[in-house]
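Blinded run. Sample ID left blank on purpose so nobody reads anything into the name before looking at the predicted structure. Input follows.
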Amino acid sequence: MRNIKLIGIAALATSFGMCVALGFVDEPKSGDAAPAFVGKDSEGKSIDLKAENAKGPVILYFISNTCPVSKAATPQYQKMAKAFTKEGIRFIGIINTNKDGFDEWNRIHAATYPVVIDPGYKIIRSYGVTKAPSMVLIGKDGKVVKFWTGYSKGFLDEQVTMSAKALGRGPSKLDFQGAPAQWMAG
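Blinded prediction complete.
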C-alpha cells in the first residue's frame, strides 16, 4: 500500500511543479532523536546538525523553491528566524534545489539564516517531509520537540510558544499579520 501512495505522490509532484517532496520515511515524532546530517549551505559552508544542536535548540525550516505555499510562508518564517536567532535558537533552512535554484529563490526572499542546499532530497527524505513548508523544532537534547507540516497563523503562534519554551522562557509574541487562519501546504 505504501508503494502505491508513493507512486501517487510522485505523479502529483511531477504534475504540479514539485510542491511535494518524495518522502520515504515517516516524519519524526516528539521525543525521537532528530536525524543527523551534514550539508552544504548556499555559500558552500558545511552545516552539521549535531554541532549546531550542541549550541542550543534548532529550528529546521523545509522549503520548496517553486511551491506557492512555501513562497507565501517564507516571510512569516523570516520574522521567526530574526527573533529567535538573536536569542540562541539555530534557524536553518533546507531547500529542495541546487545553488542556481536557491539563488533565484533568495533574490525574492533574502534569507537571513543559513539555507542548506538539498537537490537530492537526502535531508528532506530523512525527515519524512512530504509537503512544503514543514518545520521541526529540535530541543537542546537533540530530540524532536515537534514537527509541523504546512503552516497557518495557529501553527506559527504554536511554533513561537514552543520555541520560547525550548529556550527556557515564557512565550514570545510575533505579529504574523497576513498568515492564513486555515492550514495550508503545497
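Unblinding after everyone has recorded impressions. The longest helix spans residues 68-85.
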